[in-house]
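Researcher: Here's my situation. A collaborator sent me these components and asked whether they could plausibly form a single complex. I don't have experimental data yet, so a predicted model of the whole assembly would be a useful starting point for our discussion.
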Amino acid sequence: MKIQSNSPSSDEVGFRFLWDSERSYVAAAIEISGITKRFGEFEALRGVDLRIEQGEFFALLGPNGAGKSTLINLLAGLLQPTSGSIRIMGHDVQTDYQRARSALGVVPQELVFDPFFNVREMLRFQAGYFGHGPENDAWVDEVIEGLGLTDKAHTNMRKLSGGMKRRALIAQALAHKPPVIVLDEPTAGVDVELRQMLWAFIQKLNQQGHTIILTTHYLEEAEALCERVAMMKHGKIVALDTTRALLKSHAAKQLSLRLTGPLPTQLQSLLKQQNGDEVVLALSELSQVEMVLSVLREANVAIQDMQLQEADLEDVFLNLVGNQKGASA
Amino acid sequence: MKWLNPFFWLDDKVSPRWRGVYTLFKKELLRFWRVAFQTVASPILTALLYLLIFSHVLESHVKVYDQVSYTAFLVPGLMMMSLLQNAFANSSSSLIQSKVMGNIVFLLLTPINTLEFFAAFLAASMIRGLLVGLSIYLVALCFVSVPTVYPGWIIAFALLGSALLGTFGIIAGIWADKFDQMAAFQNFVIMPLTFLSGVFYSIHSLPPFWQAVSQLNPFFYMIDGFRYGFFGHGDVSPWLSLAVVGSFLLALAWLCLKMLKSGYKLRS
Ligand SMILES: Nc1ncnc2c1ncn2[C@@H]1O[C@H](COP(=O)(O)OP(=O)(O)OP(=O)(O)O)[C@@H](O)[C@H]1O
Ligand SMILES: [Mg+2]
């Protein structure tokens, strides 16, 4: 590679040039190509390809054991892939691991902590490992405040409650202000207040340009926050689309009706369920409601009761990854 | 709380390139310094108890070198023994704890490279070992006068010994998965090797067979070379000891870096 490295300066210029040309197109925040991961005989990931652009707010969903955490651990370099490659902000996590890791902040799923230090010390150490010194302390304090840890800044990690430990864990991932932030079930075991506080803070970071990837079993959270969603099952991505498109294509709105007469044949194609005298119609668009009403009127069937339900991500999830529910929920 | 941080004067002088390794070193150092009563004071006390008891019992019975009292003879041996054990304990216990607690991920997520990881753990271990060794010397001086004939050899073997066991501790910390494996390592490898290395006796007082066996023990050379620095006498030449200890250190450091580089047990 270093053909003209006679003098250190020419080498350095070459290096810069490469770096600049690499940056001249916008690198994906995360680019996963052909990743497989085996644990002995067991294949936890079976060929995953995924590209997440900078600035996205992205959800990785799937039932327990789908391979979400395994994928995240591969991003973070905590595991080595069996095959395939991963780039973070254009840097390969194996060959250019220092830059890849600098660009990444990961909140692990397990509640781990260092019992020797208090919250603020831990955060400063964490930033320090990434090359940040006292100039970064203001940011550390901002994170502490943003996650409601101000009162606990001088408390030893060991003495924090479970939810507080989770906050500190999240704060640790943010300490070096990484452009790409991955949160593996950040809201497990966390009270409502923190969830709101956390999402407000994370959304602010997203607006400032940070890329956010999260896993969660609270699907309404993913629905409310994320523009795009990947659903995983048995080590594969089974759906990848914008949240809106998924909602639209997979689970339409549901119209429940209690009628005085039988359902007109014209509407049979929309029928999803029938429980006694209650029929449930699946609509792909709201405008279909009018059509349904006019057909009923023409057939002289009156409506005793009517309810319109929005489909949610949970329906899509159940549709795509089987009948077991979002697990921990 | 500034006194708890011996680094406050350095913190804003480190360049970003070196901040990672500096921070890890600082954290490792503070980790034992915060509990110095347990990590520094208690080994000093243990060593002094050995000194008191053995010298009281054996002073009139054992003559190792002319002009050197048994108590004086014992001091460098005890210093070295404590130095080695504490250098080992520092890196090994830190690593096994972080592994069992799971907080090692915070380190594995960072851009800190293999060599920096090694250097930071090693340096903190050496400092703890040297601190304990030096303190034992200073306290022992209250009871007995110990000459220092070749300070250069003393310093060289203190540095090499602490580095060797610090490295050994990193290897053991990476290898062990549980606390009891680590305890076994300490009780069945480290303790016998230190006790049988001539801390309490000169190997010349042993039968020829056991003399030969002792010479296979790398710890013997650390203690003998160290003691040579104090008294100008040793069981073997300090150059031989230097060669043996130096080669062992290089071999272990190579192994340790190799383990770290491959991600052995840390990144599967
Ligand atoms: N270190 C390991 N050794 C062996 N098998 C593993 C290991 N880590 C994960 N697995 C297996 O890989 C599969 C995927 O696990 P993973 O933790 O990625 O699931 P997940 O999608 O994060 O699930 P959850 O929602 O429960 O967190 C599981 O079957 C798990 O048992
Ligand atoms: Mg998981």
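Model: Some features of this prediction you could bring to your collaborator: Chain B has one domain: 21-262. Residues A 68-69, 109, 184 surround magnesium ion (ligand 2) (CB under 6 Å).
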